[in-house]
Amino acid sequence: MRAEVRSDKAGPFLPVIENATGQSPVLLVCEHASNALPAPWGNLGLSPDQTRAHIAWDPGALGLARGLAQRLDATLIHAPVSRLIYDCNRAPDMPGAMPIRSEVHDIPGNAAISAAERLARTQAVYLPWANGLHNLIAARIAQGRRPVIVTIHSFTPIYHGRPRAVEFGIIHDADPTLARSILAASPQTGLNAQLNEPYSAADDVTHTLRLHATPYGLQNAMLEIRNDLIADPQAEAAMADRLAPVLAAALHAAKAAA
Amino acid sequence: MRAEVRSDKAGPFLPVIENATGQSPVLLVCEHASNALPAPWGNLGLSPDQTRAHIAWDPGALGLARGLAQRLDATLIHAPVSRLIYDCNRAPDMPGAMPIRSEVHDIPGNAAISAAERLARTQAVYLPWANGLHNLIAARIAQGRRPVIVTIHSFTPIYHGRPRAVEFGIIHDADPTLARSILAASPQTGLNAQLNEPYSAADDVTHTLRLHATPYGLQNAMLEIRNDLIADPQAEAAMADRLAPVLAAALHAAKAAA
After folding, report:
1. What is the pTM of this model?
2. Which site from A141, A201, A211, A221 is most exposed, i.e. has the minimal number of CB atoms within 10 Å?
């Protein structure tokens, strides 16, 4: 049972919080910020090309989220471990939490995960992340500053060989209010913006919103940017310039509607 | 700012877990188990009679929950601090979280709580509780043992001067499946059993279910026993004898319906 012994020693991998004193109601959340594959798991049998690819993280998402945090004066929280070890936007029993396969790639290190190893990864990666995010949200609520939860993701322009036309996806879970306000404000970006594309809550991609926003009745949305549009720091900054006013306008509209 | 300095030193008040190796899918949760009023808060200006009354806790709920845990071989988790300091079944911005008044009693120590004190109590009592419960639930899910969340409460037979006829209340939030199964099995108890009495989710009494069960799609219900029926250890044990078979039958029915 080598894997279990190794994993007992791992973590906890705490979330990283930036601009903790940010004054915006927006709380930016980036579950797939990192492609780090720390010990004891290591590269899970993947090549360096694979661990740099979108299967391991959301390329550009952290840079974009930092750009938005700066422009909005928002706090940002992000996860420090690759989603191939544990995808923090998935519950522990979802297949995508520790995926056996991602798009066209088998993940050898995830081929046969025991219950004990699943528990160890949950305790080392998922729970420190989820409870850290909960600490931040509950503290804001206690102080009378109900946060608006906006998760930042990127998606691959070509998936299973098919190009995707959508450039900016806005996804909601139970409460569509903020997502619709963002969509309404999005024409100013010039992007091909779509509601619930390239996937939706039905694909189990809204775990963070369900766990952290819905129970507290917090406004929330998940943003997805096509990763070829945020492929380097200059592009990330340019995208932050385009999206920050959209978020600000949507926040204003959502507040007026509430 | 004396209150803030005092509170910075308080806690964390961790939940108490009993029968951690219990094999039942039921996870018993008791948010109002204790009338302890620890330092730095102390008695909040209340008399000894008041701190023994139902406003400070749910009398009999812990004894009943322990009886059920034993009979079902279920794990039990309970909170170690009075709900007058922080009601762990409330979000930090709900008025009931740190109540100014409870039924006919003013709570002097809660009359003027600053944002910093509200944050301190949230961090000392609510977050250790909620994250501890989350740790337990997520660990079970990771191991392929999805828990069934059953919260155990008691209510006062006379409220604002009016007697209550209901003896056994079964309350649900978004998913009524388990609550309806428990109601269907309840005639064998001989109790006056009612769905969503003496209050319901509309009264904001289902925070624990919303935060911990619904996001994971776990079966859940909140049970309320009139506290004159569990007023001493013998009565608690007798009630556990009556309710354990009801829970077992409801679990079976809910599983068959799923």
Report:
1. 0.95
2. A201
